[in-house]
Design goal:
mainly beta, 7-stranded antiparallel sheet, 7 strands, 0% helix
Length: 87
């Protein structure tokens, strides 16, 4: 029996983000809030750079550590999003 990986499409999922603004104007995401009410604390921000997202668009990509996992959080045109699997 063959073991086949199921390919799933990803999409932009806009999220609410609680953010700290420094006096120098830097943004530091503190937690991500999904529509379903799930809240995830951002434990660490490892990097911020300008990048194109695989799901379309260009924005500031925040490389974050959330629950011990490295994840990307995007800030584009005043809105935050994550790349999520389509349902």
């Amino acid at each position: 029996m063959e073991d086949r990986a199921v390919e799933r499409n990803r999409e932009k999922r806009y999220v609410a983000v609680d953010v700290h603004f420094s006096a120098e104007g830097r943004l530091r995401p503190l937690q991500i809030v999904f529509d379903e009410g799930r809240v995830y604390a951002v434990d660490q921000v490892r990097d911020v750079c300008r990048r194109a997202a695989d799901v379309g668009g260009v924005g500031d990509r925040y490389t974050c550590v959330i629950q011990g996992q490295e994840r990307y959080l995007w800030f584009e045109k005043g809105r935050w999003f994550v790349e999520a699997f389509s349902e």
